[in-house]
Amino acid sequence: MYANGAQSLEEFDAQYPNRPHNHSPTLFFSELTTSLFNSLTNPPATGHAAKLRRPGTKTSDTEQRRHTIERFFSHWRNEVGDDVYPVMRLILPTQDRERGVFRLKEQTIAKLLIKLMKISSRSEDGHSLLNWKVPGKSASSRLAGDFAGRCFEALDKRPLRTDPGDMRIAEVNELLDRLAAAGGESDQLPIFEEFYRRMNPEEVKWLIRIILKQMKIGATERTFLNLWHDDGERLFSVSSSLRHVCWELWSPKIKLEEDKANLNLMQCFQPQLASYSVAVSFEKMVEKLRLPSEDPEFMIEEKLDGERMQLHMMEDDTVPGGYRFGFWSRKAKNYTFLYGESFGDESAALTRHLKGAFDDGVLSCILDGEMIAWDATMQKMLAFGTLKTAALNMQNNPFDKQGWRPLFRAFDCLYLNGHDLTKKPLHARRKALEGYTNKSGNQIPGVIQKQVPGRFEIHPYKLTKSPGDIEPMLRKIVENSSEGLVIKNPHAVYRLNERPVSWIKVKPEYMTEYGENLDCVIIGGYYGSGRRGNMKSSFLCGLRARRADIDAGIAGPETFYSFFKVGGGLTAQDYALIEHRTEGKWRPWNPKAASQYVELAGGDRYFERPDVWIRPSDSIVIEVKAASAEKTASFRVGQTLRFPRFRNIRDDKKWDDGALDMDGWEELESKVEEETKTKKEMEIENRRHTAKRQNRGITVPGEAEFIANVAAKSKLFVGMKFYVPSNVANPKMTKTQLEVVIREHGGTVVQNPARVREGDAVPLADRIDAPRVAAVKKFEGVSIIRPKWVLDSIENDYLLPYETDHLLVATEDMLALAAQNSDQYNDSYCRDVQLEELRSIFAQMSEDGRRPAASHFNKEAFYDQLEAQGHELPRSRGYVFRRCRIHLVAVDGVSELTMARLRSYVSFGNGQVAEELDDEVTHVVIVVGQGDVEDERLLAADVRKQISKRKKLKIPRVVTEGWVGECWKEETRVSEEEYAPV
């Protein structure tokens, strides 16, 4: 039933005598897929189906999912028994630490299925499976990025069975354990053949998702564990073991004993993580630590670019050296095989070098730290991606004094000689780690009595009371190309599996970007055009409602407000991956169905409505960068990001854990306002300021009134009042006819001109000689709008921004704003022109050569205005480097042809090439051509040193020339992190 390798059931019972025993065979795998997986992933009933429910029975999607899980667990207890572990390891495969690694990627599975189905790899389905990341035109390849979906469509055309499969969950576990132990295709193929023969295509689809550990069922491990038992997630935090949770807490009547909720040796736990800084200043950041007034000191540490690692050590006479080690990553992967299980482990990359490092009085301990790659020759840390290479190098060449090696930096001691220290304050845990001098002047030893340079060290920190000490350390970080800093409250306890504000990350700010990445949830999608037709080309991101509003019942627990649209920075692979992670979760925009989860601006007008929407709990968190923020009525938050750019997907964060919300955004608002006022620090503004004209964005009249007075759906002029003093000449309409048109589209008509003087109504007229119009003209500060604006707005089905032709009489400010909404020939930026208007435009163009141009078209301002209004620019190399000022730095020997090519890319991409490393440079490109890595390293180090000495702490990105080429290839600005010099 448990498929635990070669162990017999008797041996298994002897090893785990207290585990629960089921009274009946496990359920069929088909029951798991239909009653749980499909029920969780299929959208809840809406429309007619929803109306069939009895009054008062409406439940939220979250509650329905919880009920689905509870029903399944109840069914399992009744039909099978109290041992839920066999099915839990299929529901939560990423948390199943007992099963071996499958070593199967999509490409390998595709080849196996092609053989089983006896089709050619060149056939439509064969090609679709092998190229699953590439969207195709046929039905079988429309699900770009969803490999399991591709497999289902191919299998569904040639199934061996269509009825539910006859494999029980225990059998599936047995075969999966055999698959994990399989050595190659010859062993894997028979196992897949058994699955193919005894499962229908939909069941195989879910099986593939289990193998790839990509379930996408809309519920987290926390939900499943806590619905199985109230203490389930708490026990998992200290054990990281599904089996331990399922067998310790097999009955709801069992209460978790306090000592079992503590850390245990050789039992991986879920570590505390650092929170994200959104504070305006270092002073505000330190305030968030909540330091006691009597002792306001805090700690500053360098944030290391490595892999979070926990080190366990205990006495054990059965291993060489008398002490046993265990190493686990943040994701609970066991790395003991790599770093060593004892002092005498001859294959160890680390532990064989640690003899004498621990104090003699240490019998057992658990250290929290970071495993980093260290270059012994250069005496410097290497990038995270080189860590495994460094560890393998040490395994093969353990006494190499010049090569790369793993270095463990310990920054916390969580367990010592049988005592859990997580409830102790950080300063006490640091004393346990490194020792201290007591009041009598005696030296009290710590866990580590002797550091091993370049292999095993205590991570240093600075203790200070002054927030001003953060900046000089941050400048040093810039010079050394390190990741950032972490500030810590030394009085705080250790919180397992949380991101408390007692640890806060601080990172350098980059030119044209916020100092901290913004991690937001995708809540909507927009289909593209051209090459991206019928595919999502941009996404709507939102912020979760304020905690106070959720607690008060004003907003739902899963209510998100629209915030910004993002499409820039996404590569073809990024699109495919997002589609893969969210496949099956998207729903066509329906205000009634979406309103519980997605709130847009504009009331029933639904500003920036997406083509499709997705529940936040079904969605993903993405990391974005932006130039700044600005106020807007187009998004529900009331502000939006200007020029947001995708960076990557944050798999480590969830919609309700780690993503930015309204509370976090409001902490950032003062910083947003400050950056908006100081536009000189934003590279984009350097090109926008002109003496004649300021780009203030498109103004929509009546918008504020409309927002404040939400009325019936689809009524264009709801909330707006109009005064019509006379008949209309063009087009010919009587006063009454125009008033009827206004009322038909939701507007209100007033007859008292005093309402115009009070600013309560918009006057409409196209003749200045009518007596009532002349009277309105005398009102101070009043603009008279032509009826053409009303008719154009109705034609385009939204409130148009004013154009020059829409104004009969206007203030200077109004005329200046209107001039920005059309070009020098009065061709509108915001609507399609009519035939007669087009003739007039062409006539003006033909006269242009005979008279000076009325105005110069500002391409940059036009691009800015389009993006500010949410209109996505199509992919084009013509503006891939827009808003970038790039300084090229080359080593000796780089050909002029290479430099000319890079300059051409930047210039053609609408970027600026800077001859000097000035304060407005956003990117420094290190060019080495055919040079070696050492040339690149030395040149980059010199550049970073120059940057660290600049007065402004905002810094440019330092990248290799490969970044320019990749941006050019993808026709968008890609993330810079992957192209940082060594």
Automatic annotation (TrEMBL):
**Keyword terms:** ATP-binding, Coiled coil, DNA damage, DNA recombination, DNA repair, Ligase, Magnesium, Metal-binding, Nucleotide-binding, Nucleus, Repeat
Domain ATP-dependent DNA ligase family profile residue range list: 408-545
For the region Disordered, what residue ranges are annotated? 43-64
- The residues forming a coiled coil are 665-692
Catalyzes what? ATP + (deoxyribonucleotide)n-3'-hydroxyl + 5'-phospho-(deoxyribonucleotide)m = (deoxyribonucleotide)n+m + AMP + diphosphate
A single GO cellular-component term on record: DNA ligase IV complex
Q: GO MF annotations for this entry? A: ATP binding; DNA binding; DNA ligase (ATP) activity; metal ion binding
- Subcellular compartments: Nucleus
Q: Quote the PROSITE patterns the UniProt record gives.
A: BRCT (PS50172), DNA_LIGASE_A1 (PS00697), DNA_LIGASE_A3 (PS50160)
Q: Say which family it is in.
A: Belongs to the ATP-dependent DNA ligase family.
Function field: DNA ligase involved in DNA non-homologous end joining (NHEJ); required for double-strand break (DSB) repair.
Name this protein carries in UniProt: DNA ligase
Protein species of origin? Cryphonectria parasitica (strain ATCC 38755 / EP155)
Top-down, what is the taxonomic lineage of the species of origin?
Eukaryota, Fungi, Dikarya, Ascomycota, Pezizomycotina
